[in-house]
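Input sequence (451 aa), recorded before submission:
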Amino acid sequence: MLHRPRRAAPGSADEEWSSHLQTNFTPAQLADPHVAESEAILRKCVHCGFCTATCPTYVTLGDELDSPRGRIYLIKDMLENDRAADKETVTHIDRCLSCLACTTTCPSGVDYMHLVDHARVHIEKTYRRPFKDRLVRSVLAAVLPYPQRFRLSLKAAGLARPFAGLMKRMPLLKTFGVMLDLAPGSVPEPSASAIPGVHSPKNKRVGRVALLSGCAQPVLKPEINEATIRLLTRFGVEVVVSSGEGCCGALVHHMGRENQALEAARRNVDAWLKVADEGGLDAIVITASGCGTTIKDYGHMLRLDPDYAEKAARVSALAKDITEYLATLDLPEQEARGMTLAYHSACSMQHGQKITTAPKQLLKRAGFLVRDPAEGHLCCGSAGTYNILQPEISAKLKARKVRNIEATKPDAIATGNIGCITQIASGTKIPILHTVELLDWAYGGAKPEGL
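Predicted structure, token format:
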């Protein structure tokens, strides 16, 4: 029987959980490398409870099973007993945002990211979701990773928006009604920045990078990659948009659709290494931090693939967030612009990639006054498809995030992830822009339209 963790106060460290978690996997189970990895992760957990204080779902819901250590118990029970996922386990794992605030907080180094990834794959293989859930997830997996399909779906959403209220009252169509609410009022035209090709520097070449075009971002905000190309070429960096690259695989990876995620990873590895082998690469630059977290994990995701393990590790080593790469260019210090920014650090940036200072230092060097909102460690509730699949929890987190941002009284908000941009923009009238849009403006580009 599953031992239910007590519903403890945030930050408590119960004496009974002061030692490492004991596991009882059989040698046959541990012969599976995925199980062996999860077992090693489980054994690191001391159930101190520090993670509960920074977990957005525990802070919001107050249920121990919606905290990292509660989910760890559920995952341990499911994997150790080699059983199919049940409704309760799926409910609580589905509520996890994969924000990874728990990994930042954990004093024992528990690799929660890879543990919950394994759990989601196990759920996908062993649990039959209700029909409406299967339908929604299949639609998301078939549309969001493909820019042309996504653009068409957003245009169709404009026609269907008047029916959103009716759809949300119908159980089978409720989630599609939520999607209509989230869809933008207009869709930008396709941008030349997404077309494979080489963008030459304006002066002497000092570097060469590949730029991830991505899937959702070039449809929703093509100006982010446009600003990136302008800024990099202005400072002597050649930018290559690789033929054959596409979605990083994060969206399906977090839904447990591992085969689809690994196919995306292999495709991108091939595309970028072709460019690297032809002319060298200093970095693979990524402007969506959610994608960056996943691409930096390609080496792990494909570690068991003899044909791709080494190549994927090479790609992961080259992967850099745009702010990481810009920090190596030593951009000149600019005069104060008289503009105050609230910097929202995306979870995938601060917890997933451990990038906390570079974006703010770049903005300050560019002349902006930068403020940190309270509770900056808490997720805004976007989290890939989370605001579609868990709209109630997402809405609470968004409201909390917007209150904290607005309390800093900024002229604008800066962040480094498209999901956060769309989520926060739907809750405030304060302009929100990608960090690179503001840097492009500060170093000679046009003023962003959002301002």
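Checked by second reader. The first strand starts at residue 197 and ends at 199.
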